[in-house]
Specification:
CATH superfamily: SecB-like
CATH architecture: Roll
Number of helices: 2
CATH topology: Bacterial Protein-export protein SecB
Distance between the termini: 28 Å
Oligomer: single chain
Shape: elongated
Order of helices and strands: EEEEHH
Mean pLDDT: 84
Helix content: 25-40%
């Protein structure tokens, strides 16, 4: 299917759920944390490929060991019948993670704030580069 760039993709963002949230911290106040951020994703399609389940996980560790947080969310997407303009597989490459990532960022910032530490706001991330790195890793490790 060739996408008409003058139209919307014809895909609905139906729902998002928090699958997992794990957080631990030590007592006291941290120094300015050095963060190690790791993103992972898992994609699955319905048999007729008109629904997409996109799972994204973000793990963040403070290099000093002060805190550790992991958040996993699942987004549900579907083709809008009669308005199809983009394949779900293509949509899952960039659009789905871009839709889910702000929810993960907000959950992590809120959780760390409620824990009494300065909010951890994940810096802007180049999802295209991460997707490219993930694709290269999958090609290297069949």
């Amino acid at each position: 299917m060739n996408m008409d760039t003058s139209k919307q993709p014809g895909i609905s963002f139906d729902d998002i759920i928090l699958k997992e949230l794990v957080f631990s911290r030590k007592e006291g106040l941290p120094q300015k944390p050095e963060l190690n951020v790791q993103l992972k994703s898992k994609v699955s399609f319905s048999p007729d490929e008109d629904r997409l389940l996109y799972e994204m996980s973000c793990g963040i560790k403070d290099q000093s060991g002060f805190f550790d947080i992991r958040c996993t969310m699942i987004g549900f997407f579907s083709v809008i019948k009669g308005k199809e303009n983009m394949e779900l597989k293509e949509y899952s490459n960039m659009n789905a993670p871009a839709a889910i990532f702000p929810y993960i960022r907000e959950t992590i910032a809120s959780t760390t704030t409620m824990a009494g530490i300065p909010p951890v706001v994940i810096p802007p991330i180049n999802l295209t580069a991460i997707k490219r790195e993930t694709s290269n890793e999958q090609e290297d490790n069949p």
